[in-house]
Amino acid sequence: MRGVNLALGAAGLAAFLALGEAVPRLGLVKDDHFPPTTRIADALGREVTDGAFWTALGDTLTGWALGLAIAVGAGVAVGLVVSVVPYLREATASTIEFLRPIPSVALIPLAVLLYGTELRSVLLLVVYAAFWQVLIQVLYGVQDVDPVADETARSYGLGTWARIRHVLWPTALPYVMTGVRLAAAVALILAVTAELVIGAPGLGARIAVAQTSQAVPEMYALIVVTGVLGLLINVGARTVERRTLAWHQSVRGEVAV
Hints:
Helix content is about 80%, strand content about 0%.
């Protein structure tokens, strides 16, 4: 089954690349605006031989990784505290629902005022966007705890931290891993967006330079790189999720299928 899926995925990718080659060649769009796949591939080859490209890639991955790590740590800690402390969930519900829908890009002016084009501007946007993905999943995970199991743990005299470790955490962990996977993708999007708009060092800034200098094939090549990064991050997150939750029924069922 996995071999069939891989074959279908490869066939779909080949068809997409062929379409990208044919559309500008047939004159359906101007190749000045959308160059053929082969020209984009040539530009990508030139990029990977340029040391500045790898520096920009490292800057993007640094902002993504640091922002994601901070967001995951803060999201898990805040989620557990809000869920465990009596009445804190109700007291913070309106605040969370007010702050969560605010788009991270709306904070770009604030980030520029505070930190300019430094890495901290990228981190501000990445952390804000990824934090909510993790926090909401932790809250849902703790809410899904079996009340009978929780009461049983209390009756056996387990303290707060023991109940978190043996009852709350195993139940919430699948939700946490889902939040981390979503946050990883969002963090990459915001890292590239911040670089593109603010001008912080990274792939986004390099895309903006290519666009303003009319280096269209190079611009598309860099966009392809960001897409490949997103794919690798998603595959990596799913792999970690499967290994971490190998004991969980959902993962065992997925493997069995």
